[in-house]
Amino acid sequence: MEKRELDALCDVLDTELKQHGLSRRDALKLAGLSSAAFLLNPSASVGATSATASSVTGKILIVGGGAAGCSLANALVKKISSPDITLIEPNPQSVTYQPGQTFVATGIYKLEDIVAQTEDFLPKEVKWIKDSVVSFDPENNTVETTANGQIRYDFLVVATGLQLHYETIDGLTKEMIGTEGIGSIYTPQGALKTWGVLQEFVAKAKSGQKVAGVFSHPNTPIKCGGAPKKIMYLTHDRLKEAKARENATLTFYPNGGLMFDVPEYHDAIIKQYEVRGMEWNYRHNLIGVDASKKIATFDHHYLVKGAWDEDLEEFEMIPEAKRVEVPYDFLHVTPPMTAPDAVRNSSLAWQRGSAAAGGWVEVEKETLQHYRYPNVFALGDVAGIPMGKTGGSVRKQYTVCADNLIAVMNGKEPKAKYDGYTVCPLVTGIGTVMMAEFDWSGKPTPSFPLLDPSQERWLWWIMKVYMLKPMYFHGMLKGRA
Question: What are the pLDDT digits (tens) for 261-274?
C-alpha cells in the first residue's frame, strides 16, 4: 500500500473511531500494534499494488460485483496498462458490508452503517452492465444475460457469490424473516428485521417469562462458518444486559459433529459455551418450521452400533435418523446455501464427487484457475475450494486471481498460490472476539503469534467493530489491501 493510500485509509479510520469516542492512538495502544501492522497484513497489500503495469490484451468479463468481483476489478485496473474489463452485476448495493449484518441484527450497527453504493467503488475504467447472467457457455466463451443477451469474453472470472435457500425448509420463506420470532442475518433487511424479533425475545425474558432461543446451522457449506454462533453469543449478551439471562435457554443445532473444524478453536468454543450456560446438540439439520405453533423440526442423524465385524475387528456403525420437534420463542435460521442456479446448472460446476452437490465452480484450490477451462477463474463464495467463504479469504484470493489471470493472458502458467488462508473474527460477546485464522493445514495461523489465537480479546473487538469496516470499503474494495 502506498503512503498516500495508507494515509487516506487512516483518515477514514479516525472518523469511524471518533464516532465511538476513541482516537486511533488510543485504539492502537490498546492493541499494542503499529499502525501499519494493525491495519493490514503488509505482505498482502504489496501484492495488490507493486506489480508493474502489464501490457496484456484481451476482453475480461467479471460476473459478480460484490467484495470479490469489485476488489478484483480494482486490482486488475492497477496491474494492466490498458484494461478491457466488463463487470456484470444487477445489485446497485452489491458491496454492502455483509460481516456487519450480525451487528445490525443485535443493535450494534444501524443498517446505514453497512450499506454502500456499488458505483462508488467500481473503477471508472470498468464497464458495468447492470444485468444478471442466466447461463454460461464456456465452450464458446459467452454468457447469456437477462436484458443484454449474449456477451462474449476472452477471459472469464466468476465471482457471483452464493444463493440462499430458505424455501427448502418446509413451511419457511424469506419473507417470514422478522415474524413469529424468526430471524436470519443473511440479508441486510433480514438482519434489520432480526433485531426487531430479538428485542421482543429479550423483553419476554425480562418480563419473567421462560423463553427458548434456537440457532441452526445447515447441511451445506455456508458463508462465514462462525456466523450462526456469533448471533448466539450476542443474544446471550443482550439477555445478560437486560438481567434476563436466567429466563432463557439458548441452544445451537449444527448439522455436523463439531463446533469448528480446527481443533484448537473447537475446544475454545466448547469452553466458552459451558461458561455461558449455552447448550448444543450435534447432527441436527433444520428441515421444517411451523411458525403458528413456533416449532422447529430437525432431522437428527446419528450412528448406532451394529454387529461385530470379524474381519475388520470393529463394530458396524449403522446410520439412523429421526425427526425432532423443538419449541422456540426466537429461532435464528441459517439457510442452506449453494452456488447460483446459472452456475450450478452449467459445465463450470464440479461434475464429480461430493463437491458437485453445491454447484460450486471447479477450480484448482491454489491458483483459482478452472480445471477444464484455462481461461476461466473463480474466487469468493462461489469457488469450489475446501475453505475460504469469508471476506478475509477474498482479501488474499483477489491478488492471487489477478496475478494468475495476467499470467495466463501472457501465455504463461499461473504461479501465484492461495494458501487457503481464512479468517473468522468470531464475536463471542459485546466486547470480545476470538480471531480464528487458519489455512489448508487446518492449524491456527495467527497474524500475531505472540497472542494465543484461541483466547477472546477486547483488542480484536476494537479491530472488528471499528477498523475492519473502513479497511473493507477503502482498502480491499479499492484493490489496496
Answer: 999 999 999 999 99
Q: Domain with 204 in it: what CATH number? A: 3.50.50.60
In the block, which residue shows the cell 450494534? 108
Q: What is the DSSP letter of 53?
A: P
Which of 311, 333, 355 represents a domain boundary (last residue)?
A: 333
The number of distinct structural domains making up the chain is: 2
Helix (H, G, I), strand (E, B) or coil at 437: strand
Residue 250 falls inside a structural domain: yes
Please tell me the distance from the alpha carbon of residue 62 to that of residue 87, in angstroms, as a whole number: 5
Q: Which residues are catalytic?
A: 224, 424
Does residue 317 sit in helix, strand or coil?
strand
Q: At what angle do helices 227-241 and 188-206 cross, to 10 degrees?
A: 40
Residue 325 shares a structural domain with residue 243: yes
168: exposed, middle or buried (C-beta count within 10 Å: 0-12, 13-18, 19+)? Answer: middle
DSSP structural state of residue 40? -
CA distances from 372 to 59, 63, 135, 348, 481 (A): 20, 18, 17, 8, 31
Rounded distance, CA 213 to CA 235, Å? 9
pLDDT tens sequence across 451-473: 898 999 998 898 888 888 988 99
Residues paired with 361 in a beta bridge: 349, 383
Q: Are the CB atoms for 343 and 132 separated by under 8 Å?
A: no
User: Looking at the structure, do residues 404 and 274 belong to the same domain, yes or no?
Assistant: no
